[in-house]
């Protein structure tokens, strides 16, 4: 049928999109300055978080997360109020914590790799800002010590609430057991940026009691370095070691459909050694050193590769 169309040229479209993104970033950055958890971050780091946040609106009484479910999102309350609830043995839910604007929740499941420790329900209509698991690890890694302290406070509050409830209901033996529960402590965190790793810190990393992560600036360098490699491949340019052979085969161009096999062959050609295996301590140090080098952003490694290396170190998969 006859119809009327509205046309928008590329320049105007890009201008509108960029203006909207800039406005969103400015608004979120202004709000994030008021969040105590992020007070130690600089403007650049808060800007990176602002770009990664996704808005979520919930109605009063709506469940945001449920106890026992796997957790993959971290939330900051922009407007409104929420409350955390723990389910007791009888199936009843008890409020153990309240959250207002500037407070956050959902970090426990991401830090511990465990199901949600509590449910969170909106007390009022609320606007939340959500950060997915990958962005949480990448952007909030330097704050893990602070997040862990908050986790310990929350755990103690839950223990106190459970103790009071047991005493009120006459279950004194159970109350005594709750009081002597030992709260797990969390290892300290080492943030790699590609420049500040010292020999002393490397020796500490060898012991396996320190969590390893990258600074937001280092993640940005890794992403930008990988972007350069992707551009080379997209433009079908020739670059040594990326789409050529190695050593005496440096002038041999490798077909695009053989690039994955090229990388496999490279690893296999180096996967050899003599003598006894390295100790776990030395293996940890070598892995940390390699991650620290990649953190400089010059290698072009994929962020997913770095994430797997960090996971291997932190899970002691050596």
UniProtKB/TrEMBL annotation:
Residue ranges the record marks as coiled coil: none
Example of a GO MF term: cAMP binding
Keywords of the record: cAMP, cAMP-binding, Nucleotide-binding, Phosphoprotein, Repeat
GO CC field: cAMP-dependent protein kinase complex; cytosol
Record-linked CDD domains: CAP_ED
Cited PROSITE patterns: CNMP_BINDING_1, CNMP_BINDING_2, CNMP_BINDING_3
Domain Cyclic nucleotide-binding span(s) in chain numbering: 1-34, 37-157
InterPro entries named among the record's database cross-references: Aromatic_Lyase, cAMP-dep_PK_reg_su-like, cNMP-bd_CS, cNMP-bd_dom, cNMP-bd_dom_sf, Fumarase/histidase_N, L-Aspartase-like, RmlC-like_jellyroll
Annotated family: Belongs to the PAL/histidase family.
Protein name: Cyclic nucleotide-binding domain-containing protein
């Amino acid at each position: 049928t006859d119809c009327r169309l509205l046309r928008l040229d590329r320049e105007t479209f890009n201008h509108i999109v960029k203006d909207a993104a800039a406005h969103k970033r400015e608004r979120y950055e202004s709000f994030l300055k008021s969040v105590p958890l992020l007070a130690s971050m600089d403007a650049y780091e808060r800007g990176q978080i602002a770009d990664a946040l996704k808005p979520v609106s919930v109605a009063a009484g709506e469940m945001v997360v449920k106890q026992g479910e796997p957790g993959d999102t971290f939330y900051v309350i922009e407007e409104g109020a929420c409350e955390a609830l723990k389910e007791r043995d009888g199936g009843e839910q008890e409020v153990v914590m309240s959250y207002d604007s500037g407070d956050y929740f959902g970090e426990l499941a991401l830090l511990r790799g465990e199901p949600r420790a509590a449910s969170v329900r909106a007390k009022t209509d609320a606007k939340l800002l959500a950060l997915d698991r990958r962005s949480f690890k990448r952007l909030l890694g330097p704050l893990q010590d602070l997040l862990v302290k908050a986790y310990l406070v929350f755990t103690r509050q839950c223990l106190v609430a459970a103790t009071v409830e047991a005493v009120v209901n006459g279950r004194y033996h159970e109350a005594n057991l709750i009081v002597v529960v030992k709260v797990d402590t969390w290892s300290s965190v080492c943030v790699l940026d590609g420049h500040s790793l010292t020999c002393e810190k490397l020796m500490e990393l060898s012991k396996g009691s320190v969590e390893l992560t990258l600074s937001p600036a280092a993640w940005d360098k890794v992403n930008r370095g990988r972007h350069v490699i992707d551009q080379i491949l997209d433009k079908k340019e020739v670059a040594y070691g990326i789409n050529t052979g190695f050593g005496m085969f440096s002038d041999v161009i490798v077909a695009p459909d053989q690039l994955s096999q090229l990388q496999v062959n490279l690893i296999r050609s180096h996967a050899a050694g003599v003598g006894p295996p390295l100790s776990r301590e030395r293996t940890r140090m070598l892995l940390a050193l390699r991650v620290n080098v990649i953190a400089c952003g010059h290698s072009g490694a994929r962020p997913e590769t770095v994430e797997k290396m960090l996971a291997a170190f932190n899970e002691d998969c050596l």
